[in-house]
Amino acid sequence: MIMNIKPFKPLSILAAAALLLAACGGGNTGNSGSASSAGASGSASPSASAVSESGVQEKVTIEYWQYEYPAKVTLMDELIKQFQEQNPNITVKQTNFPYDQYNEKVATLVPAGKGPDVINLYYGWLPKYVSSGFLQPLPESAFPAAEIESRYYPLVEAAKIDGSYWAIPTAVRTLALFYNKDLFAKANIVEPPATWEELVEDAVKLTEKDANGQFVVEGFAWEPGAQLHHWYRDGLLLQAGGQDLSEDRRKVLWADTPAGLEAFQYLLDFAIKHKVGTTGIFTDDATAFKTGHAAINVDGSFRLGSLKADAPDLNYGIAPLPSYKSKSAPSSFWANAIPADVTGAKLEAAVKFLQFLTSKEVQEQWVERVGELPAQKEVATQDKYLKDEKLGPFISQLDYSKAHFFIDETGERTLFVDATNEVLLNNVPVETAFKDLVAKTQKLYDDYWAKADKK
Predict the structure, then answer these.
(1) Could you give the angle at the alpha carbon of 247 between the alpha carbons of 242 and 249, nearest 5°?
(2) pLDDT (mean) for 115-143
(3) Could you tell me the strand order of the sheet in which 160-161 lies?
(4) Which of 150, 188, 319, 367 is the most exposed place for a label (fewest CB within 10 A)?
(5) Mean pLDDT value of segment 63-67
């Protein structure tokens, strides 16, 4: 995905950034070892040419920002120690913020010159961060575009804007079906569902309610604001034969064929027709599954680490997402970038830290400790991952996975959730809610591009 976005004027930084709200993870959320192969494209800034192949020669301290996600924070602390042992002249300080405050901190501190030297961002935020002037392109000398496009999964091209790579991930994500093996055995279901129809049939069989009609077990955890809105755009919609966006990323195509409404209806029917799950019943979908109150959940590979820590005795399996007319799976990633005002020795150190974070060794630690998938194909397709009963189903979907181009991840998610609530809570017809959703989503895109085109 290559996006042509003209940078906004500096005065727009604070206003644009204030619109960014953390949302990507859905509710809580290299190289082959050589330092030169993690990469990104684009013209390096003048100061980037100062990056020394022999390493940083003066003592320097850089700051790394990421949101508070326990498995990631703990691992990053350990990775920083490893990096500092290899680079004794560089000290890295990790700073974390609560998930729902992350972009607020960026909006206030980065323009004031108090931000990080390396920042971890959801890929869906990149267009706004770039157009707001927050970031600089990663230097081509350290991150060659050709190497990225040969080594990384194609979804990483979402970080390429106006010909340059602005961020690079350690790991990527896709969604799959989490299923409770004990509940499946209790319902005499031998295999996880492989088709849309089988998913409905199994969810109905797995649903348990008490004498008052309240859920004891949701057959299918139903939380549109978690991962289901992603499942719709890059999974259900495409599987039904529809399209997400036009080639220039300006037009929402959901309503251009009957597939868009068909996929939306299918998703809503789990709650309004089949009544196998509903929003907020056990706090959220992840909690419901973790505590044995949901038999099936659509969730990301990033959930593996927290399940291992929080529910070590849960007997569950992973399966590829059920298919319909074709296969498609949503994918996404968090990537590391360098803010625009980082120069000199700090830039050299930031580049070396990014090279370290995209090394084969770090990608392997990340998948084993966090559960996210290696960003590079040669790392992800090792037998130890492909044959892993939990990682393998995720990795098997990466070749046909899609990464939606978000204009405003939070805004788009909110519109989707509002549309489902209109149906579920206000009895608005599904077709009416869908038409309204498409129109409001299109307006987000129209407003964004109208502003971008004026700059």
Answers:
(1) 95
(2) 89
(3) 2-3, 160-161, 164-165
(4) 188
(5) 94
- Among residues 334, 333, 354, 335, the alpha carbon closest in space to that of 48 is found at 354
Contact 78, 48 (CB under 8 A): no
Q: Are 19 and 132 in contact (CB under 8 A)?
A: no
What gap in Å lies between CA 283 and CA 306, rounded to an integer?
16
Mean of per-residue pLDDT scores for the chain: 86
Residue indicated by tokens 């970038």: 337
Q: What domains, with CATH codes, occur in the chain?
A: 2-169+333-375 (3.40.190.10), 175-331+407-454 (3.40.190.10)
Percentage helix, strand, coil, to 5, in the chain? 45, 15, 35
256 pLDDT band (50/70/90 cuts)? Answer: very high
Distances, alpha carbon 27 to alpha carbons 107, 299, 331, in Å? 21, 10, 16
Show Cβ contacts of residue 318 under 8 Å, excluding neighbours closer than 6 positions. Answer: 176, 177, 178, 179, 389, 390, 391, 392, 393, 394
> What is 67-131 written as a DSSP string?
E--HHHHHHHHHHHHHHHHH-TTEEEEEEEE-GGGHHHHHHHHTTTT-S-SEEEEEGGGHHHHHH
The pLDDT tens digits for 67-78 are 988 889 999 999
Q: What's the CA gap between 81 and 358, in Å, rounded?
A: 16
Tell me the C-alpha distance between 119 and 139, whole Å.
16
| Nearest one of 108, 272, 260, 274 to 203, comparing CA atoms | 274
| Cβ contact 401:328 at 8 Å | yes
Measured CA to CA in angstroms, residue 90 lies from 59, 139, 339, 352, 373 at distances of 6, 19, 18, 9, 28
CB neighbours (10 Å) of residue 108? 14
Q: What are phi and psi of 309, to 5 degrees?
A: -80, -40
